[in-house]
Design brief:
By secondary structure, the chain is an alpha/beta fold. The protein is built from six helices and 14 strands. The longest helix has 19 residues.
């Protein structure tokens, strides 16, 4: 099975690019299943219900959120009615919605998707991400005779070390562990020792002529002068769709190949291995 994951959708420009380009991208990659992180798709902070519907209609099978999950207040009610939108499993015990679910890919195959928030350097302490992940992975073993044919984890966190630890913690129990939140794609796509594909950060679907997706004038002013004058606003230039693709073995759920995705915009394209 081929699973496509796209990193944080950033603002109106990122949202429009996903709506326009996701379907042809899925077709060109022969993707069987697609997950999109919509954490910043509405004005750079959170995701509204209407914008979630746009991402799903564009071809996302699942949309994940993050620490800004409920910045758009209508998401509180929307997520209760739309199981394809996932907030972090360790956000809060009484938070609406779900943090994990099992979804159908092509040919009736089942994919478990979970999202979790890291704790290191985040603005607030969330529940332990590792025990939360352990429970979900134990409940959804992979394999042809098991409940799901693949499993993927969106680990939304600031610290690279915490993301890497999560990858090794899930090794052999998930098809893919991919980091989100920092908006800068990393160059460490790999298959870990027990067969889990891993990438520290998928990057963002946004304008890279920016400061992590925001129009660069105000962030640069604050760094240079130490003073704020305006609000941060998402950059509106050419968008690169950034993410990762994993090919799994339906018998085991483990990864056979993994490669980064760079489509359009300013970043150099990333090519799959010659064997693909």
């Amino acid at each position: 099975m081929r699973i496509l994951f796209l990193g944080d959708v950033m603002g109106r420009a990122g949202r429009a690019a996903v709506v326009e380009r996701l379907a042809p991208l899925k077709a060109s990659l022969r993707a069987d299943f697609c997950v999109v992180n919509g954490e910043n798709a509405s004005g750079g902070m959170g995701l509204s219900g209407g914008h979630a519907q746009l991402l799903l209609a564009a071809g996302a099978d699942v949309v994940t959120l993050g620490d800004h999950a409920f910045d758009q207040k209508d998401m509180i009610g929307f997520i209760e009615k739309e199981p394809r939108v996932l907030r972090p499993i360790n956000f809060a015990k009484d938070a609406p919605g779900r943090g994990a679910g099992v979804f159908e890919a092509t040919r009736g195959r089942k994919v478990m998707v979970a999202q979790v928030l890291g704790n290191v350097f985040m603005k607030r302490a969330f529940d332990d991400p590792f025990s939360a992940l352990d429970g979900v992975l134990r409940a959804h073993p992979m394999g042809a005779m098991a409940g799901v044919q693949a499993a993927m984890v969106d680990f939304h966190a600031e610290a690279s070390s915490e993301k890497m630890a999560a990858g090794h913690f899930c090794d052999g129990r998930a098809s893919l562990v991919v980091g989100t939140h920092t908006h800068v794609p990393t160059a460490d796509a790999q298959i870990l020792n027990r067969g889990t594909a891993y990438l520290t950060d998928a990057g963002m679907c946004g304008d890279y002529d920016s400061v992590i997706g925001m129009d660069k004038a105000e962030p640069m002013r604050r760094f240079v002068t130490g003073m704020a004058r305006d609000r941060f606003t998402p950059a509106e230039g050419a968008v690169t769709l950034a993410g990762v693709m994993v090919e799994t073995d339906d018998r085991t759920g483990l990864a056979r190949h993994v490669w980064p995705i760079r489509e359009g915009g300013r970043l150099a394209p990333a090519m799959p291995p010659e064997s693909i």
